[in-house]
């Protein structure tokens, strides 16, 4: 055990002993009887034990040194970053390490809470008592909700945001790294206090802990109250940290309207946390004073008021629902935009709707209390605000759907979770409207309908989004890809399990089965049995998830910097990111969601050598592009342009040729490089003999590029994909390898957006002649260019007559033959047969194609006639005449 | 800034280029947000107080003790105490103004006076507790009274600790006219504590 943990345990024990002594001494001095009072001792011991642990693990060292007046260095990074996995277990100030600590800790509590849930479902599998009695059932139920809410769903988003938010904003760390560490270490204390209550008599007043029930009960209830204080302190500290980071640490150019939506979500959530969480602290202080000090806040015949607790409690706990949802909304927005390859629909509406949800969230709390006996006039206003809050939520829902609309959707694991979220959360949101309506709620309160609603909201809105986030950023955080097949299993089992477990609860609730009760009417036996099976599916799915994480960490595929082709800043650093994220703060130059816009760029990341200097982009990391059939295709060119916009990469093409003609490959490679050069993209390339997997794999191993891009035709028509080239290149080279799919027609067509010079060839009878093809090929080999062959036909009148049709048809066939011959050897060419004579057609054609050069090709002296028309139409464009001799088809 | 001891407890990486660029100091933003959260904590306690005062019980105000006598609060004495605490805000402001004018002695003097006034406030408060004639256990009202004033007292104590640390730093000459973020943060906190007390005095003692 390390020094820090020894110190932590010693000081926690000292804290507890000191608390015992303090309580006994004070009680003896004031003559209180009895000396041993479990509640009081538990409170004070929990407090001092927790603080002792935090001191021992090192959370306060720096501040105490400062407070003692000793010199401290604000640039002291001795607790920053990790070099081996053991250091994850001690205090750390690196936001990435804290993010991972958060995730591991909260997922651990999720498993604890999940086990409780399975025990609850096992007890409910059949009527009567199965495994626990009523009292233990209350304990399980309270513990399940408490763990899931206070130490899983609320802080887990802090974990994800901790990891990605500073990178997204272009910052080197959070605003207050040491406070960040403290907020994390509050969590184990809080969770420990909750779990420790198992040994003092579990608290059984549910996570809501309403008095007067909570005023009774065992010392476990006190530990609950204390645990909530620690969890709340953690939330507030981390929220202040996020807000200070968002307000003061954004990179230059990162205006608030260029922030990724996750930053908006975290900001709004943090405001909710800062201003709402003190209310639950207040409510728990009051119940604690009632229990420990003998005050009478909740004793009606002493002037107390039990409804007051519910008001204060829900003034936090309703916004807490949004604290558990809004960051998920942010994650989903990132995922959906990335996997639909479209700019996020209604970016500003998304941001404003979150602000609206946050503001309205403070005005709906009493809808949890319609049957509590509160002031009756409060019901209708709260009903109205509750229904209004569905409006901004609807804005978000429609914006996500509109983002998906006509996007190029990639159903990878993160996207699956996002889709699952849309479905599940929609049902939860709709049942929420039922609950918000007073007459319906009076009927539904405290039935399984509520259980169904809250699980649809929190499973759909929190758990699904958390998994979407984990699958999305796992490659970034670990440098390993998760196994996609297991990921899909995890999702589908969870999704089906969720529906089986929670869908029938709506019906059950409408039929009147009360929640939070260990036993039930036998007529619900069958439906409860089915739900229990569904919950076991959820358990199995979770096991698959952890198995997937473990094997992927051990031997998963290496992750490239940007496996999902996201556009936000965290994808412009390595996976995992370097210690301080960026060597130099990046400059943000555009919005974060410009998918499908080839040269759009979000930010410029400075080159390391230019630390502190001018903005330069000299240092570029090599990316190996493996392609053959797909060279010159618009799809590949666009992909390279979009990646090049990151300003980080240089591209090296590798064209493996097997039996195919090497000259063709070279010609196509030259064209591609020329097209890229036209966009100012420096790329090099070579043609290599050999089989693709061997050649690319070995090149990757020896050259060590940052990523390998393999561009192929769709799997069905690609010889490479039939050999599973992408996966095998990845295995052979050990380099992160991505796959780009190009449509077949795209691969053969003339590259539309290209700066290559365009030569227009004017020919009539020469079209179809081998000599013409030979001329074009020779010119192409001299300098890569694009060619347009125009065949102006002087058709006899009437043009719809059979004679004209025949001429047109023959010309078309000859044109197709020439084009095919040229394309098959890798020349960029297109052609058009025109219905007018040269004098009329050429001005139109030149106007449409704006060629850089005109080449008139004729046979048997017709060139002169064509040249006359061409010269007349050409204007400034140079015209050249080639006489080909023999007419077409005369050989 | 290798060892600028005058910096706040938790400085941020790259804050020198960024905090200034946006014209906002991360430490002060953090303190303001923390104060916002503290305001809400007091708001929750005031909520409890008003529920008890205007809640279900419908009793006379001030409510009656167990022995049938009404609770009585020493408004005069606490009024004087309020003036002392509010005055301490002004002495702190005066000290800060001296520092900004380059007068370190003035700052130390201001801090001393502030701390002594804050301490006086606490002593008078404890004295009041001892002579009130009711305990937190009497009725819901007394519980709410002690909770509110007790939480405030604890905040005054924390404020005094922060100001004492600032005083020590001031003696070590760690604050300059332009570099005194911890002092500024501490003074924000002290002003907040004072304003809350004024509210508390008006809402609990006077009306």
Give a written overview of the molecule.
The complex is a heterodimer of chains A (891) and B (207). Chain A is an alpha/beta fold and 891 residues long. Chain A folds into four domains: 77 residues; 464 residues, Cytochrome c oxidase-like, subunit I domain (Cytochrome C Oxidase, Chain A, Up-down Bundle); 129 residues, 3-Layer(aba) Sandwich (Rossmann fold); 128 residues, Rossmann fold, CATH 3.40.50.620. Chain A is 58% helix and 8% strand. Chain A contains 27 helices and twelve strands. In chain A, strands 5-4-3-6-7 form a five-stranded parallel sheet, with helices on both faces. In chain A, strands 10-9-8-11-12 form a five-stranded parallel sheet, sandwiched between helices. A two-stranded antiparallel ribbon of chain A has the order 1-2. The longest helix of chain A has 35 residues. Chain A starts with a helix and ends in a 6-residue tail after the last strand. In chain B, 71% of the residues lie in helices and 0% in strands. Chain B has six helices and no strands. In chain B, helix 4 packs antiparallel against helix 5. Classes of the chains: A alpha/beta (891), B mainly alpha (207). At the A-B interface, helix 3, helix 6, helix 7, helix 8 and helix 9 of A face helix 1, helix 2 and helix 5 of B.
Name the descriptors.
heterodimer; A: 891 residues; alpha/beta; Cytochrome C Oxidase, Chain A; 5-stranded parallel beta sheet; elongated; B: 207 residues; mainly alpha; Four Helix Bundle (Hemerythrin (Met), subunit A); 6 helices; disordered N terminus
Topology at a glance:
The complex is a heterodimer of chains A (891) and B (207).
Chain A: H1 3-29, H2 38-57, H3 61-67, H4 95-123, H5 134-168, H6 177-196, H7 219-248, H8 261-292, H9 306-340, H10 347-360, H11 379-388, H12 390-404, H13 413-436, H14 438-444, H15 448-478, H16 484-510, H17 525-555, E1 587-588, E2 603-604, E3 621-626, H18 634-644, E4 649-657, H19 662-678, E5 683-689, H20 692-703, E6 707-712, H21 719-722, H22 725-733, E7 737-741, H23 744-748, E8 758-762, H24 770-782, E9 786-792, H25 802-824, E10 828-834, H26 838-849, E11 853-859, H27 862-874, E12 879-885
Parallel strand pairs in A: 3-4, 3-6, 4-5, 6-7, 8-9, 8-11, 9-10, 11-12
Antiparallel strand pairs in A: 1-2
Helix pairs in contact in A: 1-2, 2-6, 2-7, 4-5, 4-6, 4-17, 5-6, 5-7, 5-9, 5-15, 6-7, 7-8, 8-9, 8-10, 9-12, 9-13, 9-15, 10-12, 12-13, 13-15, 13-16, 15-16, 16-17, 20-22, 24-25, 26-27
Chain B: H1 15-21, H2 26-54, H3 75-100, H4 104-131, H5 140-171, H6 181-206
């Amino acid at each position: 055990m390390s020094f820090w943990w020894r110190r932590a345990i010693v000081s926690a024990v000292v804290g507890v002993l000191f608390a015992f002594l303090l309580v006994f001494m004070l009680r003896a001095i004031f003559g209180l009887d009895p000396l041993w009072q479990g509640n009081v001792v538990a409170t004070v011991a929990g407090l001092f034990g927790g603080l002792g642990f935090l001191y021992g693990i090192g959370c306060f060292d720096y501040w105490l040194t400062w407070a003692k007046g000793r010199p401290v260095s604000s640039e002291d990074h001795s607790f920053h970053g990790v070099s081996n996995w053991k250091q994850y277990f001690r205090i750390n100030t690196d936001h990435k390490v804290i993010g991972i600590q958060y995730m591991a800790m909260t997922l651990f509590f999720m498993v604890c809470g999940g086990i409780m849930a399975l025990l609850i479902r096992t007890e409910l599998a059949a009527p009567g008592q199965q495994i626990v009695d009523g009292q233990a059932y209350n304990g399980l139920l309270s513990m399940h909700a408490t763990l899931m809410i206070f130490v899983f769903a609320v802080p887990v988003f802090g974990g994800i945001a901790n990891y990605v938010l500073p990178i997204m904003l272009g910052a080197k760390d959070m605003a207050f790294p040491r406070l960040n560490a403290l907020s994390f270490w509050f969590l184990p204390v809080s969770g420990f206090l909750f779990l420790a209550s198992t040994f003092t008599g579990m608290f059984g007043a549910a996570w809501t802990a309403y008095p007067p029930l909570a005023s009774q009960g065992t010392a476990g209830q006190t530990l609950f109250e204390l645990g909530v204080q620690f969890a709340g302190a953690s939330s507030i500290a981390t929220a202040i940290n996020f807000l200070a980071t968002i307000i003061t640490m954004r990179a230059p150019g990162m205006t608030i309207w260029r922030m990724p939506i996750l930053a908006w979500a975290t900001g709004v959530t943090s405001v909710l946390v800062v201003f709402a969480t003190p209310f639950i602290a207040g409510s728990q202080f009051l119940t604690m004073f009632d229990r420990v000090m003998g005050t009478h806040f909740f004793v009606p015949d002493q002037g107390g008021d039990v409804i007051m607790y519910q008001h204060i409690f829900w003034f936090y706990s309703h916004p807490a629902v949004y604290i558990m949802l809004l960051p998920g909304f942010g994650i989903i927005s990132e995922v959906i935009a990335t996997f639909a390859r479209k700019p996020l629909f209604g970016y500003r509406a998304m941001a404003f709707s979150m602000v609206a949800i946050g503001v309205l969230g403070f005005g709906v709390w009493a809808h949890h209390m319609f049957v509590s006996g509160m002031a009756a006039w409060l019901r209708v206003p709260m009903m109205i605000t509750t229904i209004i809050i569905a409006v901004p939520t609807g804005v978000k829902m429609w914006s996500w759907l509109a983002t998906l609309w006509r996007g190029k959707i990639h159903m990878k694991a993160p996207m699956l979770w996002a889709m699952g979220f849309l479905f599940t959360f929609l049902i939860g949101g709709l049942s929420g409207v039922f609950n918000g309506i007073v007459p319906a709620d009076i009927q539904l309160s405290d039935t399984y309908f509520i259980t169904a609603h809250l699980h649809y909201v929190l499973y759909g809105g929190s758990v699904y989004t958390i998994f979407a986030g984990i699958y999305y950023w796992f490659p970034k955080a670990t440098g390993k890809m998760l196994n996609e097949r297991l990921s899909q299993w995890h999702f589908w089992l969870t999704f089906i399990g969720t529906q089986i477990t929670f869908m029938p609860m709506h019906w059950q609730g409408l039929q009147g089965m009360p929640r939070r009760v260990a036993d039930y009417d036998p007529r619900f036996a069958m439906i409860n049995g089915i739900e229990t099976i569904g919950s076991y599916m959820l358990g199995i799915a979770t096991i698959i998830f952890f198995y997937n994480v473990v094997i992927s960490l051990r031997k998963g595929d290496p992750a490239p910097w940007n496996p999902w082709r996201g556009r936000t800043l965290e994808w412009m650093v390595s996976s995992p990111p370097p210690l301080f994220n960026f060597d130099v703060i990046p400059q943000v130059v555009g919005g974060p969601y410009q998918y499908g816009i080839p040269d759009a760029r979000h930010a410029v990341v400075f080159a390391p050598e230019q630390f502190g200097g001018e903005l330069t982009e000299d240092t570029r990391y090599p990316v190996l592009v493996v392609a053959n059939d797909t060279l010159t295709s618009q799809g590949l060119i666009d992909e390279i342009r979009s990646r090049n916009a990151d300003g980080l990469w240089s591209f090296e093409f590798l064209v493996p040729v097997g039996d195919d003609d090497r000259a063709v490959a070279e010609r196509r490679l030259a064209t591609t490089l020329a097209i890229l050069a036209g966009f100012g993209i420096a790329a090099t390339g070579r043609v290599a003999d050999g089989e693709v997997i061997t050649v690319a794999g070995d090149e990757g191993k020896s050259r060590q590029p940052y990523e390998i891009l393999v561009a192929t035709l769709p799997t069905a028509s690609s010889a490479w994909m039939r050999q599973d080239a992408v996966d095998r290149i990845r295995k052979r080279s050990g380099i992160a390898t991505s796959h780009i799919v190009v449509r077949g027609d795209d691969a053969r067509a003339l590259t539309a957006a290209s700066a290559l010079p365009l030569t227009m060839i004017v020919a009539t009878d020469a079209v179809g002649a081998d000599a013409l093809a030979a001329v074009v090929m020779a010119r192409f080999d001299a300098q890569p260019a694009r060619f347009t062959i125009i065949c102006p036909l002087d058709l006899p009148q009437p043009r719809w007559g059979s004679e004209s049709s025949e001429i047109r048809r023959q010309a078309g066939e000859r044109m197709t033959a020439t084009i095919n011959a040229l394309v098959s050897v890798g020349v960029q060419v297109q052609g058009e047969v025109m219905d007018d004579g040269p004098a009329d057609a050429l001005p139109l054609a030149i106007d449409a194609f704006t060629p850089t050069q005109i080449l008139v090709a004729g046979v048997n002296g017709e060139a002169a006639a064509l040249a006359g028309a061409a010269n007349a139409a050409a204007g400034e464009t140079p015209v050249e005449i080639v006489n080909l001799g023999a007419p077409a088809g005369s050989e | 800034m290798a060892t600028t001891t005058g910096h706040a407890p938790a400085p941020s990486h790259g804050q020198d280029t960024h905090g200034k660029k946006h014209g906002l100091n991360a430490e002060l933003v953090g303190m303001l947000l923390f104060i916002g959260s503290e305001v809400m904590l007091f708001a929750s306690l005031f909520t409890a107080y008003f529920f008890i005062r205007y809640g279900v019980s419908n009793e006379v105000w001030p409510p009656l003790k167990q022995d049938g006598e009404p609770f009585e609060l020493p408004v005069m004495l606490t009024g004087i105490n309020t003036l002392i605490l509010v005055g301490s805000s002004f002495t702190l402001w005066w000290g800060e103004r001296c520092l900004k004018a380059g007068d370190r002695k003035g700052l130390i003097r201001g801090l001393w006076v502030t701390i002594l006034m804050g301490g006086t406030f606490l002593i008078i408060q404890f004295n009041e507790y001892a002579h009130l004639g009711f305990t937190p256990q009497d009725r819901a009202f007394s519980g709410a009274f002690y909770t509110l004033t007790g939480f405030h007292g604890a905040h005054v104590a924390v404020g005094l600790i922060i100001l004492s640390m600032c005083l020590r730093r001031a003696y070590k000459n760690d604050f300059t006219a332009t570099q005194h973020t911890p002092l500024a943060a501490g003074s924000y906190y002290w002003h907040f504590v004072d304003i809350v007390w004024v509210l508390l005095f008006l809402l609990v003692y006077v009306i």
